[in-house]
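Crash report, auto-generated. Payload:
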Amino acid sequence: MITLTIDGQQVEVEPGKTILDAAKSLGKVIPTLCYHPAVPAAGACRICVVEVVAGDRPGLVPACAYPAKEGMDIQTQSDRVMQSRRMTLQLLLARSPGAEVIQDMARDHGITENPFPERAKQTGDKSEKCIMCGLCVRLCQQIIGASAICFDGRGPDRKVSTPYNNQSDVCLGCGACAFVCPTGAIDPADYSPSPIEKIPNEFNCGLDSRTPIHIPFPQAVPNKPLIDRDNCIRFKTGGCGACETICPAGAINYDMEDEFVEEEVGAIIAATGYEIMDPSIYEEYGYGRYPDVVTSLEFERMVSASGPTNGELTRPSNGEPPKTIVFLQCIGSRREVNGKPYCSNICCMYTAKHAILYKHKVHDGQAFVFFMDVRAAGKNYDQFVRRVVKEQIATYVRGRVSKVFARGDKLIVRGADTLSGTQVEIAADMVVLAAALVPSSGIRELSQKLRVGFDEHGFLLEAHPKLRPVDTNTAGVFLAGCCHSPKDIPESVAQAGAAASKALGLVCHTRLSREPTIGIVDESSCNGCFECEGVCAYGAISAKELKDKKGNTLATVANINQGLCQGCGACAATCRSKSIEVQGYRDDQLFAAINAINR
Amino acid sequence: MIQKAKNETTDPSEWQPRIVAFLCNWCSYAGADLAGMSRLAYPAAIKIVRVPCSGRVDPMFVIKSFEQGADLVLVSGCHPGDCHYTSGNYHARRKLLAFRELMTFFGIDPRRFKISWVSAAEGAKWSNLVKEITDEVKALGPFETYSEILTGETGP
Amino acid sequence: MNVNSTVTESLQSAAATLLSEGKVGVVIGYGRDAGASISHPMFIRKPEDAERLVFDDCCFGNLAVYLPRDKVRSMGKIGIVVKGCDLRAINVLLREHVVKRDDLVLIGVPCTGQGDPLLHKCSVCEQHNPEGCDMVVGDPVEQPAIDATQRYKDAASLDDKSLEERWAFWSGQLSKCIRCYACRNVCPLCYCKRCITEKTIPQWIDTSAHLRGNVAWNVARAFHLTGRCVGCGECERACPMDIPLGAINQKMAQLMDEWYGFHSGLSPDEKAPFTTFKVDDPETGIL
Amino acid sequence: MRSTNVDEQTLYTAQAGWLKSAVDILQGAGVDVMAPVETEPGVVELATVKSSEAVTLDYQNVRLPLKRLFFPITEVVLEFKSQPEGDVDVQSEPLVSETEVVVLGARPCGVAALEALDKVFHWDYDDVRYSARRARTTLISFACTRPDAQCFCTSVGGSPHNTTQSDVLVYLEENGQALMQVCSDKGAKFIEQLRDVVKPAPAGTQPPAPPEVKEKFDPAKAKAWLDEHFESDFWTEVALKCLGCGACSYLCPTCHCFDIVDEANWQAGQRRRNWDCCSHPMFTRHASGHNPRPDQASRCRQRIMHKFKYFPERFGQVACVGCGRCVRACCVGQNLVSILTDIESKAKGGDKADVASTLN
Amino acid sequence: MSQALSTNQTGTLIPLDYMVLKMRIVSITDETVDTKTFRLEFCDAQQGEAFEFHAGQFGLYSVFGAGEATFCIASSPTETGYIECSVKRTGKVTNELHQCNVGDIIGFRGPYGNWFPIDEMQGKNLLFVAGGIGLAPLNSLIRNCLDLRDQFKDIAILYGARSVDDLVYKERLENWQQRKDVKTLYTVDPGGETPQWQGEVGFVPTVLTKMKPASQNTIVVVCGPPIMIKFVLAALVELGFSRASVYTTLENRMKCGVGKCGRCNVGNLYVCKDGPIFRCSDLEALPNEF
Ligand SMILES: Cc1cc2nc3c(=O)[nH]c(=O)nc-3n(C[C@H](O)[C@H](O)[C@H](O)COP(=O)(O)OP(=O)(O)OC[C@H]3O[C@@H](n4cnc5c(N)ncnc54)[C@H](O)[C@@H]3O)c2cc1C
Ligand SMILES: Cc1cc2nc3c(=O)[nH]c(=O)nc-3n(C[C@H](O)[C@H](O)[C@H](O)COP(=O)(O)OP(=O)(O)OC[C@H]3O[C@@H](n4cnc5c(N)ncnc54)[C@H](O)[C@@H]3O)c2cc1C
Ligand code: SF4
Ligand code: SF4
Ligand code: SF4
Ligand code: SF4
Ligand code: SF4
Ligand code: SF4
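Recovered output after restart:
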């Protein structure tokens, strides 16, 4: 371990660490530009200089590249340091007048004027942002391994470019250069032969993008990053590995494979939730055509502090705050033709919530809500909606919107107010569509796997709507949340609790009891043809070997898992040798019933 | 000989057919129940055998019913897609339709064997259906083909 | 009788080799008794007996019927002489887990048809050359193009009749049935350990040979073979009362073909029509 | 051979057209006449006829054995019906009708088979239905003219001209005439009824020589081997190709095993007697699952043993008349004659030491 | 060959039309989970008076609509006015019979078959060995012999069952045990005993060997499952008994009961007529098909 002092504070670091590392571990901020933890430091921009007061070679050194040494005494804010930084900044300002970071930094360092005014003219050219730190070039060569970019030209003409200034065959279009560039001066689209595709951030409804390595969403469990192999350079070319270099915990392991985890379980709870339907099928609302028409879920993200705009509500078209907003309820819900005939249950409530959130963000904005009728059944729900109306947080208009179209930069929402019987037209900045809830995609496959039924809309079926709302007809499979029907969080949580306790009730016993309506195989006559297996909707039938005392297999016969069998009798009807009887509906019992008709 | 119980009154127009109906527990039986609860009258000629699922019905039940003197057999289950057991009625559909073709091929009148889908909510459909098929079988009259061979007197 | 001497010779040597190399414990093939009118099943267990195998145009039997038998299985791995059509029965047996492919050595025989005149199944046979066998003896034969409408002609000629005429026909035919169950025992697919006729609690089918019992039996038999019967024609050939059982099987095969595009026994991997379904299966005639 | 030693006194000649007259006369007398009828192409069965036109004389033998007339494929033995208060009415109706039956054109082998059946149905218990049917029936056999390759009556003590159990044996002649040999009182009565068309045969008349049926084995020699070989691999070999179907037994004129079953609905039913056969595995299976004849080998053995050893021991005759039906019926070519010739050559210690393999 | 015991071949023809006598169930006793004893009275009292049989004979009992089944008459010929049969539930008819109630009417045909050689047993020691439901036919004989106790010398009964629950006629077993003039030995298979069980534990043949019965002047009657009979016989031979002094009963399937249907045919014998009682020495001569 090496002990050194920074601004009077002692710190211990491992050998090989830089002064910057040491300062970081003390929580001290040393400004950097050309430094990126993933890229070997070059100390090129010299913004990170610190003063070595005592040590082998006192003087100014770049903190990012200078190794920490035993007994060093370092000042990060000394006059000498500040002077040097200011000088550096002034030079950078002159070199790269368009770089906002530099401007900001300069301002922070008390530089109010550009000392080299002749170069201060901004032309908007990207090269005016570049500070020639070469971080991108080092990254592309040393980390990505592509060497797609390099410095070209000399003196004032020096710039980052590709060999021969052409589009580069070797550029992967990964965008890492842009990612590390301290000034935003580089646009990989200039070099890449193929379009640079941003990776849409799923959690934010694709409203912003994310990196290949990312934490899926803020409350993810476990709250850990994952690598999206399809987009990761490491997996695409074998290069990069930046994340591994910087991960202090050494947690990155590229050899990890997706695993199929097989668990034997006593119960399964289906809680696969919902998606919202794509409202672009309704052309009249203009979703997909006008960027300012968004879905409720997108809106939810826009106003979220962890969202793409960090909670700032802006119009996607021009970044301005929407001064007039219109919420349309029942988009696709309660619509018999070309829609979902059911009520999505939660839209009334969240729209009211959205109106409030909107008012929080845009105090002087005006909100309108088009609704069919407000369904606010639930504890305190009606009061909540009434507050929104009463406090004029939003103007509720009862009626359907017939068309949304653009006029200038406004969206005209034309609809009917059925209460007053008038046509209304609102010029809005933003339109939010409360689209219908649908079961998550893949629900059919899932229902087949779990062997539970689904209704015509794909929501999983409960065993009984009143008496067994959490169970399914497949023993041991329970339902929670929106996979069963649209519902809000409290309802989902309540159902989840019920499902969990049902599941626990199952697994806490070593023996299960159930109604005796189950299939029983007559092993002496079963042929082992397994035609019955084919018709069992519950996968209750499997093979069983009958052995003699010596362990020789005498026959393979059907075996019915008594926990899974639901007693439908399809197997009994299919078995030719009549080797299955369903208790309670045995053949002789049914024959007796048939016999009785002759009375 | 194996006898048909005497239920024929002296007046042939009063002849009551015997109809055996295999109803799945969850849809058709509940539908018939609903018809009852809703006081929707339907002919009493129908004798219901409750089965868990239309998929439980082995086509040989139909033959058995004819052997016991049925003039018409009905199998009714949940509408496709609605099976309580997810797919029992799909299996039933394949088997029962093929069975009806087989009967027809032998010259056994297919009008004597009906298949229907009646849901738990379709009390009215049930009551109409029973009326219709009862009228139809009344028009057809007693199932001669089977009542002739019931005695077991024919043979090589 | 028309012995195909080239096939017979290669068959004999193939069987002898299999036996002497210990690859099989028995070869089931056809042999010929002096004065017999058909070539009958023969079980060869010693290489030197292989010379008694023949292949001619009277090899009617479907030898697959012996595969489920304990006695035969106890002889070891089974070599079995199969014509293209017999293979279909084996495919069904494989599908229904009655036999394992590893326990069989299939000795395929190209066949231009059996019987003089040709059996019906042979006149519409599209499997003159067996496929998927472990070995084929004899040269491939020419496969004539088949007129598919011929396939179901017996059923079709009855279908053309009125309901009453059909009942008159079938009640006449079925009242002949003496309930010997030869049709069942000869069928390679009627391998049930306990046939439905033997189930007494409850009694599914009256065992008496009166028309009531005979209709129930023949309906059950036909239905149990629907989607399974491979049309080998053995049941009809075995019936001592000459009941045209083939027409019934044809009718059901035709239905499976028309409704589900299904032909039984073409591969061991298919799913029997009654063990699967499609959501949009035909459903005309349901109220 | 029983038929060769003919007493001239019993011979009659019938003129052409006698068959028509016979049918008419018998009909007139209220007798049910059964005769060979071509029921479907190539198939001849005994059936009730109203006139001689329906009768065919062009047949080798009838498909179903004669036994069915006395011991039907299925017959009601009891009828029962529940009565109020839990009582049951049991009737042994319907008894056999008393109408006389004359069978014209049974084959001698089939008729001879009745000798064996008579013994079974009429030892210390007398099966009343069988006996009643036997009593009311007159059997007019037509001498066999067309034995085929499967026939072997001569090997089991019969002949194409066997008169055993026949009431009259008729030798048909080309020109429509016939020579008739009276074998019983019933036969004499028949001849008497036909007196207008039948005359005593001129002195010196001899029945024609029977067509040749090769003697293929000697049942006595076979029995000698059977006596010693209950346990033998031979049975396994014989049984290999046997499918265990009942075709051979059902068609056999001497096989007589039966089953008794009840068929009923909730209030009434019948007890029936149905043909059954020892090849079926369930035939002997016990409730415990134990089966005294557990495999096809023991069942095939039973069939041979019963016909050629047990029956002779118990009833003094072979239970086979050599009609060849079983051979014709078998779809896997199981051949009773080959089995017995093999047994015989084994008995002789012949070179067919490995008989087994010639059979399957 | 075999010296059949047939005692009823009278030479007179008895007409057979399969008619049954109607009998009413007057009591039902549960013996084990699957065995019940039925006491039956003739509906027609005159038939009852005329009815005679010998121990060891059987009848065909019918449940109308289900069919006929064979059971031996389990009561003693000395008891009149009724007969008893003990029936194990195994199939169609026995199943239906088990569902019958007191008062129901069933059909009966019989008695058929030969009987135990009770004349030959006079003045001899008797040893009865039974297993499981095999006590049913022996029950008739034992009751018969006990009713005529002074005609015989020592009487010993060895009875075994798989478990205590499988013992039939529990009350009667106790009665016999109380008697001074009968030696009784009851056993259950190892593992079948209960804590209260006072009797032996072990398989019947083993217990028999331990029991060391004297072979002189003794007639043995064995009834039970085929496997038990086989080993009991071996044990008896070991103990010096001659096979000719051992009798047993066979239970081949039968339908007619009178030597026609062919089912019970073993060699040239019919179990229904030449049996069901056989001398073990005679069985040796028969094909092993029982
Ligand atoms: C715009 C909007 C605003 C809302 N606001 C509110 C509100 O303010 N208050 C409120 O109470 N409710 C609100 N809701 C409703 C709320 O979102 C739902 O009630 C809740 O999310 C339902 O929870 P869930 O667990 O059923 O489903 P989800 O939250 O959808 O969770 C389902 C999970 O299952 C996963 N999954 C899907 N398929 C599979 C599969 N095959 N295998 C494994 N995992 C799978 C999904 O990825 C997802 O993580 C709002 C809904 C919307 C659309
Ligand atoms: C002489 C004799 C005395 C008998 N005494 C008794 C007795 O006292 N108590 C008793 O419980 N049983 C006795 N049995 C056995 C009894 O006859 C059968 O258990 C009974 O017939 C079965 O009839 P089921 O209709 O219930 O069976 P089924 O439904 O006909 O058959 C069920 C099973 O039983 C078999 N079976 C049918 N008949 C017989 C039979 N006769 N013997 C053995 N298995 C058969 C069948 O093959 C089948 O496997 C006796 C049998 C004989 C021959
Ligand atoms: S129970 Fe029936 S259908 Fe299932 S494997 Fe056994 S024989 Fe086949
Ligand atoms: S009864 Fe239905 S659920 Fe049970 S095993 Fe049979 S097919 Fe499966
Ligand atoms: S083979 Fe013919 S006679 Fe025999 S059971 Fe079958 S259909 Fe009937
Ligand atoms: S044709 Fe007959 S014997 Fe052949 S598979 Fe079909 S049903 Fe079986
Ligand atoms: S008819 Fe049906 S039950 Fe009988 S053996 Fe054939 S498949 Fe099995
Ligand atoms: S065993 Fe064969 S040849 Fe002999 S009588 Fe019977 S059917 Fe005819």
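Post-recovery validation: The longest helix of chain E spans residues 135-147.
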